[in-house]
Design a protein that fits this description.
alpha/beta, nine-stranded mixed β-sheet, binds iron/sulfur cluster
Length: 350
């Protein structure tokens, strides 16, 4: 009898799978005690054991470097707490809220910006807290969009998702429901027809935003899972995190953006790494990110261009931090750089 491969959650599992070494166990135990560990079979399969710098391993396999916390790093790097009016809701921008249904994920990313809050030990939203969160949304008519996030909402059962979607569908002023998830790539088999159906809310537009950082994550099974969503009329966007040694070169980042567009997923955000504790070995500089965006602009279709953004530490929201193509000369003429780096004049308005 074949035994289905299981999600790797313990250091003994990782050692057995050839992903970590027994001699590193002592240091990695300290990492695992602080930050959750899980690697799904679909992602474990993508890790090249022979490559010590494998981009999949850098994303998912715990590393002793996570024990080094820098002074500028913080437990709540994007300031969720400062904007949480009731448990489970983050209301940072006027017309939209985050609704955090669960703190569990299918896979735990080593750079996670909510790494201090998520994990199997973190308590899920209780029924009473969910009532409070939905009451808050219902009593704020300015809320046009609800973003289901966590944790990863697609670890929940289709039945539970359907209930939440139905309750959101009953709130007239909510028009858009956005679901942020890594599941279509991390555990494609979870995207069943039943789960896809559960994401539809009568009279509302549902979007699914896939978190993916490397083209290798878009396996055939992942592509099929995304196709099940898109074919059901659920548009998909992507969000990626710029990560040192994972996607911080133009070829790798470009290949990811193209793979997403081929799957009918519009690249939405490229996030600059947040100041999450123990993640400095995975962060790039903003200048590197801007150079990469310039390289994409020249080489790839406009469909493949995400917006490069930074969540300003402290809860001040996201701002685009991509390269600037516009300056002014002394005569007031606008100078615009083309994708080859040449500058051109555009005359002032008459
Ligand atoms: S899936 Fe998202 S919330 Fe979960 S560990 Fe990765 S980045 Fe964090």
């Amino acid at each position: 009898m074949n035994v289905a491969p299981k999600t790797l959650r313990y250091l003994s599992d990782l050692e057995e799978a050839g992903l970590t070494l027994a001699e590193k166990r002592a240091a990695l135990e300290k990492v695992a005690a602080q930050y959750a560990v899980a690697i799904t079979p679909a992602l474990a399969e993508l890790i090249d054991r022979a490559d010590p710098n494998d981009p999949m391993a850098r994303q998912f396999v715990p590393d002793a470097a996570e024990l080094k916390t820098r002074p500028e790093e913080r437990a709540d790097p994007i300031g969720d707490d400062a904007h949480s009016p009731v448990t489970g809701v983050v209301h940072r921008y006027p017309d939209r809220v985050l609704l955090k249904l669960t703190h569990v994920c299918a896979v735990y990313c080593r750079f996670c910006f909510r790494r201090e809050m998520i994990g199997p030990a973190a308590a899920p939203l209780t029924p009473k807290q969910l009532d409070g969160a939905l009451d808050y949304i219902a009593s704020h008519p300015e809320i046009w969009e609800v973003v289901l996030t966590g944790g990863d909402p697609l670890v929940l059962s289709a039945r539970r998702l359907k209930q939440v979607m139905a309750r959101l569908a009953a709130i007239a002023h909510v028009k858009v429901i956005r679901v942020h998830s890594r599941v279509p790539a991390a555990d494609p088999a979870r995207i069943t027809p039943e789960l896809v159906r559960s994401l539809k809310a009568k009279g509302k537009a549902t979007y699914v935003v896939l978190h993916a950082n490397h083209a290798r994550e878009l396996t055939e099974a992942a592509r099929q899972a995304c196709a099940r969503l898109v074919n059901a009329g659920i548009p998909m966007l992507s969000q990626s995190v710029l990560l040192a040694g994972v996607n911080d070169d133009p070829q790798t980042l470009g290949a990811l953006m193209r793979a997403l567009v081929e799957c009918r997923i519009k690249p939405y955000y490229l996030h600059h790494g947040d100041l999450a504790p123990g993640t400095s070995h995975l962060r790039t500089s903003i200048e590197q990110g801007q150079d990469l965006m310039r390289a994409l602009r020249g080489r790839l279709s406009g469909l493949c261009q995400p917006t490069y953004v930074l969540d300003i530490p402290g809860g001040h929201g996201k701002s685009p931090i991509g390269p600037n193509y516009l300056s002014r000369d002394e005569a007031g003429c606008a100078r615009i750089d083309d994708f080859n780096g040449r500058s051109h004049c555009y005359p002032p308005a008459a």
